[in-house]
Recover the amino acids of this structure.
């Protein structure tokens, strides 16, 4: 039937238009998000550098940048949402694990256990995170704007080889330093007897968290290595053709 | 030409094609001429390939042989014959060469042949595909229906040690049963040593032990006597993961229920009794559903009819859900959670509910796809909700 066919094509055009606008909105939002995050971590980097240059020591540095750090790191939860609704093509689980480990460090270790805030390991992982995040978010930004300078791409796929292990060392040393304070204060723990018939010991939980780095870290690291190989391998093929 | 098909005995084409090998099989001499004629018509690559094979025979390449039945093809002697080459999907080296494969032999037959050459790779462990990165072929796929010429190349991958379904379930269920009992009798080194081998003063703890044990004994019984499993298997790695989950969780919840500092439910006897009623009804329901699924005439995973309610009132849940066995399972664990008022039990129930919902949704989709008259009212696991 003629009218039926016409309706069909009109509907098709409408869905195509909807898809295009959705794509445009997603790109606009992602561009804004990545620019904001790049700016945020840059602010953090500048604040840390200024503090160290002025005071000459790392003591009290964490307290100075704590609020900014907590804000921008928590904001990164949105990335899990991006993967879930499909506007970013990364696995939800990989992103989820990475963001959760960051949130955990910031809120449940350094924020709640004041005594370890002046440890060197804290500065180590905060510096590593700052460098990694600035590289990563600027990479995404330039990618979305279709204008990627080579050195950003190089940085994104090569710096992690040093930054990832350093970050892990910083995090593990921090958790290890926190253990005695956790044991002494019994924080975040629930003892028997209670009417829910469950117990939770934050001290042993932290030990389990530290042990879980052993299987999880290599998986994430090799995931990045595989991505790196895929990107660089693609480049080599293009060069040969030319 | 003789009207009767020459009797091709179960020897490789080698003896036919290789005209140079005289006196190889003397009893086939009278057939050689006509057989050679046939082979040259239908297997043009034959002589070249088989000369190479002859040369390779010295290099001890394994050649599989298919036991052929007498080929009395109604069309005469024009039987299309396949050759199958099996390569390792990673190294691409040739593992096995099968000549004279019948066109209507299945992938399962080829796997049995391959097993003869490599005894440690039993058929359940083999994954054969047309493309190294493609999907695995099913055992019931027929060779001539595959998109290959008369010379097929299959890529082999070792799936690792496999266990049949019955064995899998027995292992998975015996763990929680025994582990819980160990905690119940309070073996040493779990709790404070002054509580070793004592019994709890609360009635509900004994009741919980009875219910938990009944649940797993019933499951073991069903695995042995009720369920009919397909010939499928599960890889060893997956079994270890499943066992770690079931056994670990059982230990965790048993630890708290049988703990000397256990707190009985807040609403006392009433709470325990109502929870017990829920538990018993759901266990009965779960068993009824398993029994009714058993009575369906199914061949492996394909069933002629979808399950329907019967005279048994427990099966009336089929009006509302596709997988009432999962519904009853969740119900039984909810009953146990309320009875013990123990967070680990509730967590186990929750995680189990998530997993079973995923399975139920899959099954529901399959039913809807396979049966055009599938009732619309049915949801997958929770009536009207999920």
């Amino acid at each position: 039937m003629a009218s039926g066919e016409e309706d069909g094509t009109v509907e098709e055009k409408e869905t195509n238009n909807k898809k295009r606008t959705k794509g445009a909105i997603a790109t606009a939002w992602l561009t804004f998000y990545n620019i904001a995050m790049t700016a945020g971590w840059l602010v953090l980097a500048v604040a840390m550098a200024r503090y160290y240059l002025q005071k000459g020591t790392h003591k009290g540095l964490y307290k100075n940048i704590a609020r900014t750090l907590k804000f921008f790191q928590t904001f990164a939860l949105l990335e899990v949402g991006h993967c879930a609704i499909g506007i970013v093509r990364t696995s939800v689980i990989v992103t989820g694990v990475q963001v959760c480990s960051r949130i955990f460090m910031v809120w449940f270790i350094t924020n709640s256990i004041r005594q370890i805030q002046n440890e060197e390991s804290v500065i180590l992982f905060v510096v590593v995170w700052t460098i990694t995040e600035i590289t990563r978010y600027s990479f995404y930004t330039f990618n979305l704007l279709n204008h990627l300078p080579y050195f950003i791409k190089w940085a994104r796929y090569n710096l992690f080889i040093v930054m990832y292990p350093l970050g892990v060392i910083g995090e593990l040393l921090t958790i290890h330093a926190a253990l005695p304070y956790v044991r002494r204060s019994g924080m975040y723990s629930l003892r028997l007897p209670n009417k829910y018939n469950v117990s939770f010991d934050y001290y042993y939980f932290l030990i389990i968290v530290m042990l879980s780095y052993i299987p999880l870290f290599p998986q994430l690291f090799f995931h990045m290595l595989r991505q790196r190989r895929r990107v660089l391998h693609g480049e080599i093929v293009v060069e040969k053709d030319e | 030409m003789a009207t009767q098909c020459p009797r091709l005995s179960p020897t490789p084409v080698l003896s036919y094609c290789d005209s140079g090998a005289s006196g190889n099989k003397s009893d086939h001499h009278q057939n050689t001429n006509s057989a050679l004629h046939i082979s040259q018509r239908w297997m043009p690559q034959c002589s070249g390939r088989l000369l190479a094979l002859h040369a390779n025979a010295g290099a001890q390449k394994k050649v599989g042989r298919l036991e052929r039945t007498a080929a009395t093809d109604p069309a005469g002697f024009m039987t299309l014959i396949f050759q199958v080459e099996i390569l390792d999907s990673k190294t691409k080296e040739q593992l096995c060469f099968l000549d004279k494969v019948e066109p209507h032999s299945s992938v399962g037959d080829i796997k049995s042949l391959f097993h003869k050459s490599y005894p440690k790779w039993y058929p359940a462990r083999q994954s054969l595909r047309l493309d190294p990165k493609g999907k695995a072929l099913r055992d019931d796929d027929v060779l001539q229906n595959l998109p290959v010429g008369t010379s097929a190349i299959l890529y082999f991958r070792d799936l690792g040690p496999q266990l049949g379904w019955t064995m899998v379930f027995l292992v998975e269920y015996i763990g929680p049963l025994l582990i819980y009992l160990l905690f119940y009798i309070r073996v040493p080194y779990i709790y404070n040593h002054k509580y070793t081998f004592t019994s709890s003063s609360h009635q509900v703890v004994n009741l919980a032990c009875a219910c938990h044990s009944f649940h797993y004994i019933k499951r073991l019984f069903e695995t042995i006597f009720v369920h009919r499993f397909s010939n499928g298997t599960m890889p060893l790695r997956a079994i270890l993961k499943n066992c770690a989950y079931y056994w670990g969780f059982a230990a965790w919840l048993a630890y708290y229920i049988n703990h000397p500092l256990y707190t009985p439910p807040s609403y006392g006897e009433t709470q325990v009794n109502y929870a017990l009623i829920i538990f018993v009804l759901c266990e009965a329901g779960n068993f009824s559903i398993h029994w009714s699924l058993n009575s369906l005439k199914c061949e492996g995973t394909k069933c002629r009819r979808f399950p329907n309610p019967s005279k048994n009132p427990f099966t009336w849940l089929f009006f509302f859900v596709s997988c009432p066995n999962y519904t009853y399972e969740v119900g039984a664990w909810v009953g146990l959670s309320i009875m013990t008022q123990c967070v680990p039990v509730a967590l186990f129930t929750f995680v189990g509910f998530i997993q079973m919902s995923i399975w139920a949704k899959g099954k529901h989709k399959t039913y809807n796809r396979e049966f055009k008259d599938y009732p619309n009212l049915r949801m997958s696991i929770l009536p009207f909700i999920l």
Chain A has eight helices and no strands. Helices of chain A lie at 2-55, 61-75, 78-85, 92-110, 120-144, 150-158, 160-185, 202-241. The first helix of chain A runs from residue 2 to 55.
